[in-house]
Amino acid sequence: MGLNALTMCREQQSLKVVSAALDELKIDPEVCWSAPEAIELLAKGYYSALFLDFELSAAAQVARMARSAPARRRPVVFAMIGALTDIEATYQAGANFVLYKPLALGQMMRSLRAGHGFMQPDRRRSQRQKLETIVYLQYGIAAFPALILDVNERGLALQAPEYLPAVPEVPLRFVLPGTQNMIDGKGEIIWADDSGRAGMLFSELSAESRKALKHWLKKRSAKQGSGRTTPHQESARLQSSLLQ
After folding, report:
1. 3-class secondary structure per residue, 62-101
2. Which three-class secondary structure state does DSSP give residue 241?
3. Which among 37, 131, 165, 204 has most CB atoms closer than 10 A?
4. How confident is the model at residue 121 (pLDDT cuts 50, 70, 90)?
């Protein structure tokens, strides 16, 4: 499989330059317009490179999410910045390369060639995480996205772009992979570390959500039971991940 790239940008001129550079190096392009869309795409598939317009809201959050992924799923992050963008904060968010706007093809090609050797082929069809979906945690009026690593009937383990404070009750929602079932309820963050990993126990789930989750887990365990782990072993592993 070849290399691929995801670009989060709304400026047509910048998109033209990025597209021309990717085409030159035969890297498969994909474009999105917002941080929520980018986060969803990063959760569902692998990208060799990520181009982010840091003049768009929440670009830093997308970069942190990408850099928190396991090494084998981590894209090379290119940050497109304007005159007023804080360069230091851009690197702190996880950018590997900085591209100054207005973009020039020569600058783009130099950076892209420099990062080319660090890119991994598109493995979306050959390697997947155990669970690939986004949970949205409601802190006040803001919905905070995080990547679910494991889930069971009691709770979930997750990876956020930044540290999550341990609080007794956080509204949450996520869609079970491969279904249209929305799990909606509240949870308690029982541990968290500085890298953004955290464990959460469900404190409240609707009857419909609990039934859907139980059914999904049962089907998943049945499939895995024919492989290397039994449902009992899988449950024990998930519990260990939740409680760390």
Report:
1. HHHHHHCCCHHHCCEEEEEECCCCCHHHHHHCCCCEEEEC
2. helix
3. 131
4. confident
Partners of residue 136 on adjacent β-strands: 145, 173
Architecture of the 134-243 domain: Beta Barrel (2.40)
pLDDT (tens digit, 9 = 90+) per residue, 154-186?
Answer: 898 888 877 887 777 899 999 888 788 899 999
* Residue labelled with tokens 């609990």: 210
Query: Whose structure tokens read 């090379």?
Result: 76
| Structure tokens given for 61 | 């959050």
- Determine if the pTM surpasses 0.85: no
ω before 102 within 30° of 0 (cis)?
yes
Choose among 168, 207, 202, 206: nearest CA to 186: 202
Cβ neighbours, 10 Å, residue 65: 27
**123: exposed, middle or buried (Cβ count in 10 Å: 0-12, 13-18, 19+):** middle
